[in-house]
Design brief:
alpha/beta; 313 residues; 8 strands
Length: 313
């Protein structure tokens, strides 16, 4: 059965990149398997970057290979350049999430190149992907970090966001994702930016990635939902934060986002009780890292009925 909104787990990548404690491959795989079993259909399992930059992903190949054995799971990975994309293609990953920044300063600090150099490299990725047999071609998702604000440059012009969104589409992106990398956004800005992008990219899928740095994460999700967005990134326990963006903290909490949508009658396909149980993996693997979430603290309310069950009644 189809789901009305897709919540995509990014804690394995966005969450762990900001954690100094290395999480064993076995614990990562238990997290992935249990969350997939709880109904999370897409997980960004790792990032293909040099281990000297982010040692947390030294096991990227093993995590990717094992994740691809999980039935029904869309396995995604983040890449900053065509070298990472080539590695993902060779491993057979289902989706490659490319990231560049709308902010020139953040792009230089994050991937050490200009925006135009990143865009040119994305064109190389498209060529690499299109050279593969149709059945082995990954989905290419173009991501625009700092699209809703930058800790170096402050406000980011909407026209710049639209410019690079259109450029990624023209280069061959299959999907786009608009992130609030440092949690600067508010619902009004979200509506402004997403409406502007959606008006220019036609029917191409556009997803959202919000950080809850200043407590506006779920409100921003609802604003993007009102604009027609139907795919959102979130992380179990609210883990997350860009190491190259000062002040960036966790993503919106997967458990809270799923509960909010389900309680609104919007089907996410996620079993909330099973999802809450996955937190035990993080609590064991990261005992000194705080986990967030209102639903884990308060529990499901008496008489709660999941959206799919309510619709079927």
């Amino acid at each position: 059965m189809s789901r009305e909104v897709i919540l995509r787990e990014v804690g394995l990548r966005d969450g762990l990149q900001s954690v100094s404690t290395f999480v064993d491959t076995a614990d990562k795989m238990e997290w992935i398997r249990r969350e997939a079993a709880a109904g999370v259909s897409e997980i960004e399992v790792t990032s293909y970057v040099p281990p000297k930059l982010l040692p947390q992903f030294v096991d990227a190949e093993a995590v990717t290979t094992e994740s691809l054995r999980i039935p029904g799971l869309t396995v995604a990975s983040l890449v900053p350049n065509s070298r990472g994309a080539q590695r993902g293609i060779e491993l057979g990953v289902h989706k490659i999430n490319f990231v560049m920044s709308v902010s020139e300063t953040h792009n230089m600090k994050n991937v050490r190149r200009s925006r135009e150099e990143s865009l040119a490299d994305f064109r190389n990725m498209v060529e690499l992907a299109r050279a593969q047999p149709q059945t082995q071609r990954p989905i290419l998702c173009g991501g625009l970090a700092t699209a809703l604000g930058c800790s170096y440059e402050g406000q980011v012009p909407v026209k710049d966001v639209v410019h690079y969104a259109v450029a990624l589409v023209e280069a061959g992106a299959d999907e786009l994702i608009i992130p609030d990398t440092v949690g600067y956004a508010n619902p009004a800005l979200v509506r402004q930016v997403f409406k502007a992008v959606l008006a220019e990219v036609g029917g191409l899928p556009v997803a959202a990635h919000f950080h809850d740095t200043r407590g506006t994460g779920l409100a921003n999700l609802l604003a993007a939902l009102d604009c027609g967005v139907r795919a959102f990134d979130a992380s179990l326990g609210g883990l997350g934060g860009c190491p190259f963006a000062p002040g960036a903290t966790g993503n919106i909490v997967m458990e809270d986002a799923a509960y909010m949508l389900e309680s609104m009658g919007i089907d996410t396909g996620i079993d909330l009780s099973a999802l809450l149980e996955v937190r035990s993996v993080l609590q064991r693997a990261l005992p000194d890292v705080p986990l967030y979430g209102g639903l884990p603290r308060a529990g499901l309310p008496r008489g709660f009925v999941p959206a799919r069950q309510a619709l079927a009644a």
